[in-house]
Amino acid sequence: MLKQARGRMLLVTFFLIACQLGACVYLPVTGADPYPEKMVSSIRVNESTKEDVLNVFGNPDVVREKDSIWVYGDYQGYGFMMAFKYIGWTEISERFVIFKFDKDVVQFFEYVKSGIGCSSNGMCLTSDWGAYPFIRLKNDWVEITATAIDEAVARNFSVSNERCGVYVYNSGSNTWINLDTYGEQRLTLGNYAYTEVAPGFHRLTRLWSGKSIRKQISFLCEAGGLVFIEVHPDMYEGSSQELPEIVINPEQKGKFEVLRRKRVYYY
Fold first, then answer.
1. 12-49 pLDDT, tens per residue?
2. Backbone angle region of 84, left / alpha / beta, with phi > 0 → left and psi within -120 to 50 → alpha
3. Are strands 191-197 and 164-170 parallel, antiparallel or unpaired?
4. Mind listing the pLDDT tens digit for each residue in 196-237?
5. Coil, helix or strand for 139?
6. Are 165 and 267 in contact (CB under 8 A)?
7. Which sequence spans correspond to the domains of the chain?
8. Which run of H or of E encompasses 11?
């Protein structure tokens, strides 16, 4: 009996040591889907309104293009349990729901389960921070690339006589900008932003990372016209010579700069 007891004790000791070394058998656990089918299926294209979306999903995490694009972001966790004890997520997968409205009616929406954050119509969420961590932290750190159709509209360089087109692009390090009162937006190197505004005077502000005002310019946007604004780095590379931080470029140079960049939704 004593030998058997010692044997059982050694077996238990071995099992505990093995568990500490990661040799235990763990049971996989999947966290709840943040956007279950019941939520997603309740929204209908060309029928549901912004009010319907708010009632189902709550306030959006990211708002763009003058309130016509909403994005919700969360994650679904995957982990393990041992002896009915939860030991933490070992992996998370990003989950996004992207809405595009025509006025107040849902024109397009999609539940995106891929970590790259791209919908089937070509709208992708981008940031230096990756997908999930930034979307819950800061609305203004997120960039959303335009669909192929909207990209083509911007590259057509044509606007109605009742509006004026504004292009903004960055030639230096990542920065934050604000057009009039449309809200702060991060603009990275290699991208450009486009929007249409009412003819008249407008103001573009470059912000410090703390969102205090760094530089402002006012400009006239004429009916049927286009304005190309370049945000420069602080100084010429390899030189102490300072650059004007914000400049309005001639149309020919502006079009060249736009055509070699990718559009992001901006305001």
1. 454 445 455 455 555 666 677 888 899 999 999 999 99
2. left
3. antiparallel
4. 999 999 998 887 765 677 788 899 999 999 999 998 765 444
5. helix
6. no
7. 23-141, 149-265
8. helix 2-20
The full 3-state SS of 196-223, as one line of letters, equals EECCEEEEEEEECCCCCEEEEEEEEECC
Report d(CA 5, CA 8) in Å as an integer: 5
Position 98, amino acid: I
CATH of 149-265, one of 3.40.50, 2.60.34, 2.40.128, 2.160.10: 2.60.34
Q: How far is 113 from 92, CA to CA, in rounded Å?
A: 11
* 226-231/164-170 β-pairing: parallel
Q: Tell me, what amino acid is at 154? A: A
Give the amino acid at 17. Answer: I
